[in-house]
Every structure is written in structure tokens, then in C-alpha cells.
Amino acid sequence: MPTQQERRDQAETALLTAAAELVVEQGVRSLTLARVGERAGYSRGIVTHHFGAKQALVERLARATQTGFVPGLEDVPPGLDRLLRLIDGYLGELGRIGVFNQAFLVLWAESATQPELAPIFRERDAAFRKDLSDDVQAGIADGTIDSGVTPGQVAVAVVGQLRGIALQRLLDPQSVDTKRLRRSVTGYWRRALSPVG
Q1: What is the pLDDT of residue 177?
Q2: Whole-angstrom Cα distance, residue 92 to residue 86?
Q3: Main-chain phi, psi angles of 71, to 5 degrees
Q4: What span, in angstroms and rounded, lies between the C-alpha atoms of 125 and 162?
Q5: Which helix (H) or strand (E) segment is 76 a member of?
Q6: Backbone phi, then psi, for 105, in 5-degree steps?
Q7: pLDDT tens-digit profile of 106-131?
């Protein structure tokens, strides 16, 4: 028999999954605690007990959708290899994009017009750019990346490209061949960042 904590965790997972599905289907504005509870098979009271209000649910969903998009990088030291693995892994994950990743992209796009989402996604994007910038700086330091590139600008370009491809994949999955893109985009960044000479 599951413990109380296991039941609580199971309920939260079901509620977050239901919220993600609703966001993907209709956007964050249509999200209500009652609809999340109904979709998950729980009462609105359970949703309120777990999250309190819609804003807390949206914040928790936003944070839950941002974790672990590209698995397996934790033990890879910063540098060109990690940067290229991240790009390749991100595009690979788009090929099997699940509901949480889809919800992340919808929430990310909606954060431009939703004041309650904007700080969460600004913070996440800043952390993502910093990680990428750290990879570029490490690559410059070890000689695998051209010393003439600007780490912050590379980070902005990489995030913009990956998120742009991801949104295209979300809108029109058949037009985005992630297998081919993995090779071409990763190859592009390898060539663009290689030391001159």
C-alpha cells in the first residue's frame, strides 16, 4: 500500500500532467483548477490543496517543464564537447517531444504576454545562456573554440536557434526533420566556433 507521501507525489504528478495537457491544447489562459482536477480525475479541492491558486500551479508547472530537457550532461565538463552534445541532445529530444516539453514551449511563448510567467522564463533563459556561455568560455580557454567569439552572443544565438526550431516542431511536426537537423545544426556550430588558422 502506498505511503501518504507516495500518494501525494502521485496526485501532484497527475495534476501537473493534466495541466500540461490543457496548456498544450488551449493555452495558459484557459487553465483553471477545476479543469485540471477534472482532467486528472481529482476534485478541484485536491488541486487547491496541492497548489492553492492558479498562479502557484502555473509556476510549479513552468518549473517542472524546465527540468532535464537534455539528460546525460551532468558529468560532462564545460567546453565545446558539452555545448555540441547539448545542441545535439536538444534537437534529438524534439524528435520525441512529450507533453511536458510541449507545455514548456507553449508557456515560454506565452511568457511574452503573460506577466506572471515572464520572470520564471527570464530566469530560466538567463541560466540556460549562462551555461552555454560557460561552455564557450571553457572552450576558448582550452583552445577548442576560437578566441574571437563572444560567449554571451553565442549563447543568445544558440538559445534563439534551438527555441525557434522547437516552436516550428511544435507547430508543424512534419516539416521539421530533427534527425537531419541534428547533424546540420551541430555541424554548423562546430565549424562556426572552431579556431581560425
Answers
A1: 93
A2: 10
A3: -75, 160
A4: 12
A5: none
A6: -65, -40
A7: 999 999 998 888 998 899 899 999 99
Q: For residues 117 and 58, is the Cβ–Cβ distance under 8 A?
A: yes
**How far is residue 132's CA from residue 155's CA, in Å, rounded to a whole number?**
5
Distance, CA of 111 to CA of 82 (rounded, Å): 28
Give the integer Cα–Cα distance in Å for 169 and 163.
10
**CA-wise closest residue to 50 among 12, 94, 93:** 12
C-alpha dist (Å) from residue 9 to 42, 50, 118: 14, 10, 27
Which residue matches cell numbers 558539452? 82
Cell, residue 65: 517543464
Per the structure block, which three cell numbers stand in for 145? Answer: 573554440
- CA 110 → CA 7, 40, 98, 142, 161, distances in Å? 32, 23, 18, 39, 18
Rounded CA-CA distance 12/57 in Å is 10
Cell of 60: 510549479
d(CA 193, CA 147): 9
> So what's the pLDDT on residue 190?
97
Cα(159)–Cα(106) distance, rounded to whole angstroms?
Answer: 16
Q: How far apart are CA 55 and CA 19, in angstroms?
A: 12
Nearest Cα to Cα of residue 60 among 127, 120, 129: 120
Q: Which helix (H) or strand (E) holds 73?
A: none
68 pLDDT band, cuts 50/70/90, is low
